[in-house]
Amino acid sequence: MTTHLEPVTFGERALRIEDVLALANRQAPTRLQGDAAYRQRIAKGAQFLDSLLDKEGVIYGVTTGYGDSCVVAVPLQHVEALPRHLYTFHGCGLGKLFDAQATRAVLAARLQSLCHGVSGVRVELLERLHAFLEHDVLPLIPEEGSVGASGDLTPLSYVAATLSGEREVMFRGERRQAADVHRELGWTPLVLRPKEALALMNGTAVMTGLACLAFARADYLLQLATRITALNVVALQGNPEHFDERLFAAKPHPGQMQVAAWLRKDLAIDAPTAPLHRLQDRYSLRCAPHVLGVLADSLNWLRSFIEIELNSANDNPIIDAEAERVLHGGHFYGGHIAFAMDSLKTLVANVADLLDRQLALLVDVRYNHGLPSNLSGAPADRAMINHGFKAVQIGTSAWTAEALKNTMPASVFSRSTECHNQDKVSMGTIAARDAIRVLELTEQVAAATLLAANQGVWLRAQAEDARPLPPALAAMHEVLAKDFPPVIEDRALEGELRLCLQRIAEQHWRLYA
Predict the structure, then answer these.
(1) Which of 15, 313, 380, 388 is the most exposed place for a label (fewest CB within 10 A)?
(2) Model confidence at 68: pLDDT above 60
(3) What is the DSSP string of 293-326?
(4) Is 60 labeled as catalytic in the residue annotation?
(5) What are the C-alpha distances in Å from 330 to residues 66, 214, 425?
(6) In what side-by-side order are the strands of the sheet with 168-171?
(7) Does 67 have pLDDT greater than 80?
(8) In the chain, what are the domains?
(9) Is the pTM of this model over 0.90?
C-alpha cells in the first residue's frame, strides 16, 4: 500500500468522497474512533436491543421475519438464528465480481454508516469490518441482484457472510475461503447478533461506494477533456477568442466560466495569435465550455447528494438508544444516489460525444484545415497505404454510441418486488453500475482523442511556419511523446490506447489546480 495521505478515521467525523477514494486505492491508513465515550455510545444501541428482547419486544427483523414477513413473529429461541438465515438466502448474486477498488469503497461506505451508532450493532462488529479494510480482506461480491431499496441486500449479504467466516474473499492476491483467512489472521468469525445482519445488508453502501468512485473519475475526466479540447484547438487551427473572458461574463454559469478559463490558460489567449482562418469554429470546439460546463456546474450538487448519503445511517429500523425507541422507516431507499448517477451518466456521455466529434474533425481533410487524411504521418510516397487513425475513429464512434445508449435512466424502471412489500424501489445500484460503464467508455473515447490530438499537434509542428505551443500544451505534448511517439508508419495502437487508459485511471497528468 502506498501511503501518502492522513489516516481516514471512522467514527463521528464526516467522510468526503476523497477519503473513500484514498481507501479504495490503498493510499491512506484507517483508524476507528476508540475513545471510551464513543465506544459506549455504540455499545448502548446493542444493549438496548438486548433489553427489548428480554422484555419480548417486537422489533422488525429481530423478532419478526423480513420484508412482507414482518407480520410473522419469530419465537425467542429462533432469534439468534435469524441473522444467518438473512445473509444465507440472499446469497444469490450473479454477474461479474466487483473489483478490489470497488469492494473497498463498499466496505468503507458500510462502516461509515454503522459508525453513527443508531444501527444497534456491537463495537466488535465495527472493529471487524474495519479490520477487513485494514488487512485488505475483500469479500467477493457479485455486481448484480440489487434493486436499491430495502438496501443493497444481496451484494451486502456477501459482506455479512464473510464477516461470519462463510463464502469467499480475496486476500493477498488469492481467492480464499473466508474461514481460512480468519484462521490465518487469528480471528474468530463473528456470530452476528440480532439486527447485525440486517444492519450490514439493509443500506445503500454498494451504490454509494460506486458513486464515490464515479464522481472522482468524472471530475478528472472533465479536466482531461478540457485539455484535449485545447490541444485540438491548436491542431485544428481554431479560434481561441471563442473562450474570451468578456464573452463568458455575459453567461456566467460558474463551471462553464471555469472551463473557459482553463482553455484560456492552456491556449495563452492573451498572447498574440495567428491570423484566423474562420470567424466561427464548429460547435465541438466553440461550444466546448458550454458542454463541459454542465458537468462542471453539476459536480457540487452531485457531491452533496453522495456525501450526505455516505454520512448517513441508512438501514432500518433506526435504534435510538438514548430515547429507548425503535424507529421503523425507509432510509435504505437509494433515490438520491439513483438520481445522481442517472444524471452523471448523461453528463459524462455528452463528454464522449463532444470528443468524438472533435476526433471526426481531426481525421477528415474537409474539416481539419490542412492536416493529412486520418492524421497519417507517412511520407508522400507511402501515404496511399497508410491509414493513421482511421480505425481509431471508427472505434471511438462505437464507444460513444454505446455510452449514449447507456444513458437510459435506471431510476424510472422501478419494479415491485418481494410480494409487493418493496413496491417502489430506487434502482440506485444499477444506475451507479451504468455510470461506471459510461465512464469506462468515455475514458476510451478520451484516450483515443488525446492520442489523435497529440498527433495533430505534432503534424502542425512539422510545418515551416509552425508557431510554438503555449507553455501548458508544450509541457503536455512533451510528456505524451515519451509514451506515444508519432504515428508515421501504420501500427496497431491497442497497446498505446490501453496504456493511455491506465494513465487516466492513475490520474497521471496533473492538469489544473
Answers:
(1) 380
(2) no
(3) HHHHHHHHHHHHHHHHHHTS--SSSEEETTTTEE
(4) yes
(5) 14, 25, 11
(6) 138-139, 168-171, 174-177
(7) no
(8) 8-203 (1.10.275.10), 211-315+331-505 (1.20.200.10)
(9) yes
